[in-house]
Amino acid sequence: ALQPGGVVLVGGDAREMRPALAPFAQRGIPVVGWHVAATAGPMADGPVAVNVSTDPLAVARLTAMAAVADSAGHANVVIFTDSNFQIAKAKAAAMAEVIRACSGCRLLAVEDVPISGSAQAMPAVMRRLLERYGRTWTYALAINDIYFDYAGAELTRAGKPEGLRMLSAGDGSAAAFLRIQAGAFQTSTVAEPLNLQGWQLVDELNRLLAGQPVSGYVSPVHLVTAGNIAFDGGPLGQYDPDSGYRAVYRRIWGR
């Protein structure tokens, strides 16, 4: 009804939303997406032209490999995911594959906890897992930082200030940055360059409106740890590459 020149789809699943997006494609209105598929970059089939994201499988593998390296090959892992999203299932499967490939590691469980209900569900889930695995459980991996927002209190109650390390395969929330800076359970997150991706979404839409193909650019993965959190936006609680990308995009758009 608004007759937009273009559409930016933020979150969700482009495949499931295809029927609702079809009218835009029929009218020649370009659609770009952020975190709308299990793969990053151009999307050949369907109304969404490009999925702006880091490579979710590379993000997942890096997170799991960080746990393997940190444990010297002896990580006992629980993975938290949300099966309502294809991208979440793909990331969880990639993390599980890395852990299973580590001969000295153990995949204790894969917990399916909807992100939308994580605040209500995680305390009870944590209590159950701690009761079942106790000190055997040494690493928690998650497809999103939000799970760990509600895990710390239960870990403190259980008296595990140092016995469990948490690593997230996205997205680099301000709360996660604070936990990493404080050394409070979470040791790393693979943060998304959210500001940069916002500028990229505008650029991809601008290209399509000009009749040009999308750029196909995929941001490289970046593991935020206590050792590098002081750089690239870390003091502000975000990952924002100090690469001058804003000036580059302004120069492109000024041509």
Quote the distance from N terminus to C terminus.
32 Å
Shape: globular
* Residue share in β-strands: 15-25%
**Main sheet: strand order:** 6-5-7-8-9-10
Number of strands: 10
Rg, Å, rounded: 20 Å
Structural class: alpha/beta
**In this structure, how is the largest beta sheet organized?**
6 strands, mixed
The helix-strand sequence is EHEEEHEHEHEHHEHEHEH
Helix content: 25-40%
Give a description of the structure.
This protein has 255 residues and is an alpha/beta fold. The chain contains nine helices and ten strands. Helix 8 (194-209) packs parallel to helix 9 (245-253). The strands form two sheets. A six-stranded mixed beta sheet has the order 6-5-7-8-9-10. A four-stranded mixed beta sheet has the order 1-2-4-3. The protein has helices at residues 18-26, 56-70, 86-101, 118-133, 146-149, 152-157, 174-182, 194-209, 245-253, and strands at residues 7-10, 31-34, 41-42, 48-52, 76-81, 106-112, 139-142, 165-168, 186-190, 223-225. The two termini are 32 Å apart. Strand 5, helix 3 (86-101) and strand 6 form a beta-alpha-beta unit. The longest helix has 16 residues, at 86-101.
